[in-house]
Write a structure and sequence with these properties.
It is a single-pass type I membrane protein. The chain has 670 residues and is of the alpha/beta class. The protein is 32% helix and 20% strand. A hairpin with a 7-residue loop joins strand 21 and strand 22.
Length: 670
């Protein structure tokens, strides 16, 4: 064993010497293959743009084939820079919009783009706007014909194009690392050694050649976008009672956003500010006594999938029409008025707060909603919360879930509360820059107070208004701040106290991309794959709308008493039963059917007028997604390494012969 040990030590010392020589800048001792890999490759924290499909084709990003892409990194300083070879473009965020517009219009240029690395924004720059969606988002679903109106003036539409190369948004830390690498390469005049990027963004739809939703669902290379909406009533609805049910006032909001980059979809102003305002309003109303004695029933609904064809609201209305278990206790004839809480995070101006009421129609019930908003505004007095009716020159209501209600029935009485009048003031609509720095918590708190008091006025109906009860409705401002921290930041993110009270989140950093629908639709009241935000909203609403009791029984799943549900069960299996009418509602395209354990596209149906314009969005499967950077050497350097390796081999061989000869002589002497 001695000769082998001596030989191994000699070979290892020679090999590590060569490795240290071949990796300039290597620090410390390389003792294993993982050490070597860490020294050679930098895994970059980043967020991909992925491949999405619809009935007419593809959008988003992917490797062009089945293999990883490797290309030298070229930093762009302005949009007139040229590429002389296939390159990975390192791009400042300010150039992103014009760069992708150039890619779409210049075929020769686009052929040389092997991949794109987008710098993190760092501190948000409000001097420019960035919205990768259309100037009229989802115009095909509008209940009016003017689809050329610009609700989103800064919208570029670059998100809806197909890019045959990978694109990643770098994290702040990865941006700094790559900036240093690019600067060092530039100082060496881009001569060797140079750095390359290795992109692993191979999509299953590319592998099997399915390039639209119908074909990829047929070949099972994709899944439909979707998730779970939630609705709840205050007080709970007893559907078993024989007495007539009350007319319903619905307060709705959205919980999903979109972005060019899949996992960076925060949507702080649009729409999460509205969600936070609605949850805070529910919290305030849950403390009001005597709601069961008022003329109307309060129902809250939070829809997901709204950024992708209004999946949540459309499916909710379909379930309502069909009378499924997910909407037990409701029916479509009972919904009398709808108040939607839209973008309300930027209403703070000049010491006061101003919101705009966008009315869907001119019915007397719609006017009641507008009147209730004004009454609530007046009751807030010194808080200086104003409500203005949106400009009558607007073509109709802005992009919102209320559009689907109006498309389903033009007689729907509804209003959308927004922080803008004739066009979005959110200059980062549906982009990763719509983050907490883009909103004001005071504006959201003001909206919550306005909504809570307006809903109280509406549910009172024609009863004399109890001004003492109205003025007692106050929102918990600290709850607004806490929900912003939970739903829009990574610290504390979904590890915050109020979320941990109900669920065990799968991720700490929130993202409000809808994702794909993974469950079997019949099992929607006990979903296995509802996302963190939907599960939190379900538990929060169930708790806040439940009938208050001194004691409650524990549970590990279902509750034995009729009308009870188990909340907080994810926390060590120690849930508690509460009496609440809170339900999950599946959110996926109304033109999809789950049959024989898979999804099938249905033809358009005259009973579903929005189905004819439904894109039916799907997302491709993939195995792994990754981005790493490493240094490559010149051909001369490679030859030196080759010669060095051969020298080591020859030297090792000679050493073996010499050691064996020496040991043989030593053994003979003994």
């Amino acid at each position: 064993m001695a000769p082998r040990g001596l030989l191994g030590a000699l070979s290892l010392s020679l090999l590590l010497g060569l490795l240290h020589f071949s990796i300039p800048g290597a620090i410390g001792t390389l003792e294993s293959v993982p050490d070597l890999e860490k020294a050679m490759y930098l895994n970059m924290e980043s967020f991909p743009c992925v491949r999405l499909l619809n009935l007419s084709g593809e959008i988003g990003c992917a490797n062009p084939g089945n293999e990883k892409i490797i290309a030298p990194i070229v930093r762009f300083g302005n949009n007139h820079d040229q590429l002389d070879r296939s390159s990975a473009v390192f791009l400042p965020l300010e150039l992103m919009q014009s760069f992708f517009q150039r890619v779409s219009s210049d075929l020769e240029f686009s052929k040389k783009v092997a991949g794109v690395l987008v710098e993190s924004s760092g501190q948000q720059n409000n001097s420019f706007g960035f919205s990768p969606v259309e100037k009229f988002p989802q115009a095909d679903f509008a209940p009016y014909k003017n689809h050329s109106y610009e609700w989103n003036p800064v919208g570029s539409g670059i998100m809806w194009n197909r890019y045959n190369f990978p694109v990643f948004l770098l994290s702040a830390q990865s941006t700094l690392i790559l900036q240093e690498i690019a600067n060092n390469d530039a100082e060496s005049n881009n001569k060797y050694p140079a750095h390359v990027a290795e992109f692993d963004l191979v999509m299953q739809t590319t592998k099997v050649g399915t390039h639209d939703s119908e074909s990829c669902l047929k070949e099972q290379s994709c899944l439909p976008l979707g998730g779970y909406s939630v609705w709840s009533s205050l007080p709970p609805i007893n559907a078993s009672l024989m007495k007539p049910l009350k007319p319903v006032v619905m307060a709705i909001a959205s919980l999903d956003s979109a972005s060019f980059f899949r996992d960076r979809s925060l949507g702080a102003d649009s729409p999460i500010s509205g969600l936070i305002a609605l949850l805070t309003a529910v919290d305030a109303l849950s403390n009001v006594e005597g709601l069961d004695k008022l003329k109307k029933q309060l129902v809250f609904a939070v829809f997901t999938g709204e950024a992708w064809g209004y999946l949540g609201s459309r499916k909710f209305l379909q379930e309502l029409e069909m009378g499924t278990d997910s909407v037990n206790g409701l029916n479509n004839t009972l919904v009398e008025q709808v108040l939607e809480v839209g973008s309300v995070g930027k209403g703070l101006v000049q010491g006061g707060t101003t919101f705009y009421a966008h009315a869907g129609g001119k019915s007397s019930l719609t006017k009641e909603i507008l009147s209730a908003l004004q009454s609530a505004s007046i009751s807030l007095g010194s808080d200086n919360v104003k409500v203005k009716t949106a400009d009558t020159s607007n073509p109709g209501i802005p992009p919102s879930s209320l559009m689907t209600f109006l498309r389903k029935s033009s007689s729907t009485s509804g209003v959308v509360l927004e922080d803008f009048d004739s066009s979005f003031i959110n200059r980062f609509y549906h982009s990763h820059l719509d983050d907490p720095s883009n909103i004001n918590s005071s504006s959201i708190a003001a909206a919550a107070a306005l909504v809570a008091r307006s809903l109280y006025v509406l549910t009172a109906g024609d009863l004399p208004l109890n001004l003492m009860a109205l003025n007692s409705i106050k929102v918990n401002v600290s709850l607004v701040d806490e929900l912003i921290g939970c739903l829009l930041t990574c610290e504390p993110g979904l590890s915050c106290g109020i979320v941990r009270k109900y669920i065990s989140p799968s991720n700490i950093c929130p993202s409000h991309y809808v994702g794909v629908f993974l469950d079997s639709p019949p099992d929607t009241q006990f979903p296995q794959y509802a996302d963190d935000t939907s599960r939190f909203v379900w538990n929060f609403l169930a708790d806040r709308t439940s009938i208050k009791r001194d004691t409650s029984s524990s549970c590990a799943g279902e509750c034995s008493n009729v009308g009870e549900i188990c909340i907080g069960v994810e926390i060590e299996g120690k849930g508690r039963c509460v009496k609440s009418t809170t339900r999950y509602v599946p959110a996926y395209s109304t033109r999809l059917k789950f049959e024989d354990n898979w999804w099938h596209v249905l033809p358009p149906n005259s009973s579903d007028p929005m189905g004819a314009v439904d894109p039916i969005w799907t997302e491709s499967f993939w195995n792994t997604i990754g981005l790493r950077v490493y240094r490559v050497q010149s051909a001369t350097y490679d030859r030196i390494i080759l010669v060095g390796g051969m020298s080591i081999t020859i030297t090792s061989y000679i050493a073996v012969i010499a050691v064996r000869a020496y040991l043989a002589k030593a053994v003979k002497r003994d």
